């Protein structure tokens, strides 16, 4: 039921997630709009298909790891999309691990459930969709230690658990469709603000004559300790293997963080909830994107916002 996995979106995260599935012994077929990325897989003998539809035709399960809602909609409902091969689909399970808005997740899950299956597979007569965004960043994607937050039918989540555990070490079932992405938006809201807090403190520390490595030691055993100060330090030279140590490349881009804050603010507006610090944080990440750093990791806020220096 889970043997043949189709993976679409092989970027900073998806590349490693698909690789971990291959290493775990699954039969993986991939697709990305980036030809260079596809080549990296075809050179390893992994079938790289030209359209999402072709991937769907040879898969039991589909996983998508795309930048935003519009890309996910495109891959599902576009001309050669996952749902374009008629009323009967081969995959019984569709897992979207992209960080998108809960409304789009619900809309697509509803759409998917209206199709039929080619042959009897899985739990229901109709295909099922789970929203399963992740946390942990590129290092966790590479190490296979991601956390998955899952929304949708619980039986399908339990059936797919071995798949999640080949790419991650924690799975948290969050309830009905859209709840996985809702949880993810809350997580990233706190993460965005936490990055600004740590960056502001470290920048002030340096201005007051305290080195970043000293302040990191202080944070490690004090009340400001957090994932950013422990595992994703934004100050170059403090920590190896994080984006700040490689010119802020290859992590979670400022553009994606600004996108997630937009989604969190839209979700808040929908339920009449005010989140003033989130809008302040959004303005800062947006400004960084406008100034040309949209493809740099979001931790580059330390250098470009707080130190005021140019690249
Ligand atoms: P990315 O931009 O590095 O990768 C996205 C990939 O999707 C690219 O290879 C791109 O070519 C491909 N793509 C875009 N549109 C496509 C389409 N229509 N058809 C096929 N392929 C298409 O993004 P990423 O950093 O891997 O993030 C992916 C998702 O995961 C985002 O929603 C992001 O918010 C979320 N996320 C990222 C991180 C992180 O640290 N990078 C952490 C957690 C969650």
Task: Give a structural overview.
The protein is α/β, with parallel strands linked by helices. It has helices at residues 14-23, 35-42, 52-57, 69-77, 102-113, 137-143, 154-167, 179-207, 212-220, 227-231, 254-270, 276-293, 301-306; strands at 4-8, 27-31, 61-64, 88-89, 93-96, 116-117, 128-131, 134-135, 146-151, 168-175. The strands form three sheets. The protein has a five-stranded parallel beta sheet with strand order 2-1-3-5-7, with helices on both faces. The radius of gyration is 20 Å and the shape is globular. The model has no long low-confidence stretch (mean pLDDT 95). Nicotinamide-adenine-dinucleotide is lined by residues 8-14, 31-34, 37, 65-67, 71, 74-75, 98-99, 134-135, 137-138, 251-252, 256, 260. Residues 4-175 form the 6-phosphogluconate dehydrogenase NADP-binding domain.
């Amino acid at each position: 039921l889970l043997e043949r996995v189709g993976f679409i979106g092989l970027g900073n995260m998806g590349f490693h997630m698909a690789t971990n599935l291959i290493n775990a012994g699954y039969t993986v077929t991939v697709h990305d709009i980036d030809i260079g990325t596809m080549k990296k897989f075809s050179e390893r003998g992994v079938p790289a298909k030209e359209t999402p539809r072709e991937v769907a035709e040879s898969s039991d399960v589909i996983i998508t790891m795309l930048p935003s809602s519009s890309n996910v909609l495109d891959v599902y409902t576009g001309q050669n999309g996952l749902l374009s091969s008629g009323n009967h689909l081969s995959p019984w399970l569709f897992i979207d691990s992209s960080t998108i808005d809960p409304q789009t997740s619900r809309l697509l899950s509803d759409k998917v459930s209206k199709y039929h299956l080619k042959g009897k597979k899985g739990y229901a007569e109709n295909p099922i969709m789970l929203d399963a965004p992740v946390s942990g960043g590129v290092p966790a994607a590479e190490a296979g230690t991601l956390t998955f937050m899952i929304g949708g039918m619980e039986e399908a989540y339990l059936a797919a658990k071995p798949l999640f555990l080949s790419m991650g070490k924690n799975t948290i079932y969050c309830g009905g469709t859209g709840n996985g992405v809702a949880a993810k938006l809350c997580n990233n809201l706190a993460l965005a603000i936490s990055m600004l807090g740590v960056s502001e403190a470290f920048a002030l520390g340096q201005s007051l004559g305290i080195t970043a490595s000293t302040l990191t030691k202080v944070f490690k055993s004090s009340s400001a300790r957090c994932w950013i100060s422990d595992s994703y330090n934004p100050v170059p030279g403090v920590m190896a293997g994080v984006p700040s140590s490689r010119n802020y490349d290859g992590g979670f881009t400022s553009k994606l963080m600004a996108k997630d804050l937009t989604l969190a603010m839209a979700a808040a507006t929908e339920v009449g909830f005010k989140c003033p610090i989130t809008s302040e944080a959004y303005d800062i990440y947006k400004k960084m994107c406008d100034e040309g750093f949209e493809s740099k990791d979001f931790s580059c806020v330390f250098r470009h916002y707080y130190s005021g220096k140019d690249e």
